[in-house]
Here is the input.
Amino acid sequence: MSHFMRAAMISLLTGLLALSTAPASHAADAAKLALVIGNARYPEFVLNDVANDAQDVTEELKRDGFVVDRQSNLTADAMRQVLDRFYARIERGAVALIFFDRFAIQSNRQTYLLPVDAQIWTEPDVARDGFSLDSILAEMNTRGAAIKIALIDASRRNPFERRFRRYSAGLAPAIAPSNSLVLYSAALGAVAASSKTEHGLFVAELLREMRAPNISAEQALTNTKNGVVAATKREQVPWLSSSLTTEFSFAGSVTQPPDNKIGDPTKPEPQKPEPQKPVCEAPQAEPPPSADDLARDPVIADLSRKIAANANDVASRYKRGQVYAIKRAYALAMQDFDVVIRRNPGDGEALNNRCWTRAATGDLQGALADCNLALQIDPGLSDALDSRGLVNLKLGRTAEAIKDYTDAIQRNPRSSSSLFGRGIATRKSGGDGATDITQAKSMNPDIAKEFAGYGVWECVP
Here is the structure.
């Protein structure tokens, strides 16, 4: 072998050795794949800001070098196919990112992303029709993704949660594999207020920070969280989880990683809002729906068709009663619950729902009788304790209301209804109650409006 050939071979081997031993701590040159899902057209809601946010996130990810598959309004079958296609595209060492916008729900300490055709009436339906975020992240890891990123703008109160009252609001912590970044738009167990604009605050902050040069992806998401906190005066606090050990930036390489991993030192610390004094007037409750609104509701229409075809379909009548109650069509809800209870007088859940409906309409003695019977049938039914707490609160029996709400909270600590009710009852009895009320509002920003619809509001002169 000539001196030239030997030198060339040594050079080649040296280069190969350098490649094989170089630390795998930089992902700038790795394949970058993203799946963006914006589900806007659920049967009971059409959400205007979803399409705009999904499009903006898609465009930003493409500028950052991601190959993006953008999808919208996915049914369960379509969502399953899209996820399978996404998994198949993941190469070993790739950066894999999923962005999901709109409804998700937690069940059994897992977060489930919901397709637009989800049929959820009881808690087991969540796992049947939803897609576990933990499972999605685990599959991304199994397929070889070096970095896993999940951006979930789905911490909202949604109609599926309201159909069964025994639930935990908001999202559950993600059990993510190593080298993952997960960001929710609101804190664990909390929900964000519904957007009234064409673009969401969370996405606006996210896009601005993704475009920022010379910061890591983890820092960008931390800054997103801080921006939302400051803009909402701490009413909305996104949840961030990171196990990232590989250097990665959305907008390019990080030339000077910031020393402060907690937040951007150039940004002022969010100011704590001053305590608000109670305003002695009721919040504006949402008006009840019109007959035309109810007639156009696709869920009610479907259940009504089933009842018309089979008068003995008690399950459909119970579900329709729930939907009517949620929509504040209380007289129609009562008719359905009456039929269900006549068929099965020992149905504790139906008795609880009728108790709650009667409490909302002012039939307090009838409501109390229903709740007491429901609790005789099932003494541990936290929903009935919560409903009876409302009845006692409206009757002025604050000590009994506090006890009912406290017993309900022991069984379901994430019940915004029980926390808010206990806070109001505590105030009416001369105590403070601010901690309960604040926690309830962080979990459900609309809780004060809901209680106003029941004839109860926060201010106690």
